[in-house]
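subagent[fold] <- orchestrator: predict structure for attached chain, return tokens only, no commentary.
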Amino acid sequence: MAPVQLTLKSIRARPVVVPLKRPVVSKVGLFQDWPLILIDLYTNEGVVGHSYLEPYLKKSARYIVPMLEDLAEAAKGQPLAPFDGYRQAMGSLHLIGREGVSLIAASGLDMAAWDSLAKAADMPLAVFLGGTVGPVPAYNSNGLWLTPVEKLAAEAAALVAEGAFTGLKLRLGRETLADDLAAIAAVREAAGGTVKLMRDFNQGLSLGDALVRCHALDDHGLYWFEEPTTYDNIPGYVQLARELKTPVQLGENFYGARLLYQAVLAGAGDYVMPDLMRIGGVTGWLRAAAITSAAGIPMSTHLYPEIAAHLMRVTDTAHWLEWQDWANPILSEPFELKNGHLMVPDKPGQSIEWDERAVARFAL
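subagent[fold] -> orchestrator:
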């Protein structure tokens, strides 16, 4: 069968705000619900690709949607070739910057383009990229925020039961070390001693406080220390990674593979976890995965579990997938969880289709 050459016709970008089962309570803010930007990429050949962005702030849609539309208009009528498109988009952004909203928009289009191409080939994205479908090990990141310690035990037990998970994300950086220790004890007792605890500070500490707190927690059997301080303090992360026994995790805030490369080169962390809307979509992920493969650094995911699951199937140093169900309310068929794994469906593309009735209900 001859491959189908797709050309970009237009896009539609729709912001929605979906309810969260458990509110996000962290150092970066309180969120009762969650904004998404749904992207539909139309081709002249009739294939429609889908992707979505998670811009954190509802008002950010007013900036990101026009950027998406501008980038798509510039590529209108051109062959759908994600590597070429990504390079052209980045080149067009030199004068205004290749980080922030500009890269986020380029990433959203990139993910939709890859979905279109995999659908045209009638293959799941993982297969289209040269891999196979199947299970991806996941930890549950849907709770255990900076909520009252007395509520954590029941929540931890519920999170494990949601998919027979063997790993949970626990947010720390509470007012005192004693509060963090109490949170760890409550979660560990309820979840069981074999469940791994991925600890996240959400960049909430100064470097000095991060050094003090992480050293104090270093012998408490935590699986990793994630973003104790601001993500771009690379010298600080070099010091943390050098001094601590617990592995240091970072990378969700890296804009593009070059910043990830600089962090790897400096020895700023033991693990990395790129975010698809910041790293550059599927194309940016593949470039980052080549770097982590060469360096031998385990690579996990941040948000976007449906798309990221396909990519983990073709990532040499694939580690853990961060599972969140935040997009489930607008998906026609959420992915299956089984024995602590997210199952990649044997369906064309990224297996993302919208529940249009839900989209209309949650439209911003």
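orchestrator: received. Logging for downstream: The chain has two domains: 8-123, 127-359. Residues 8-123 form a domain with the Enolase-like; domain 1 fold (CATH 3.30.390.10).
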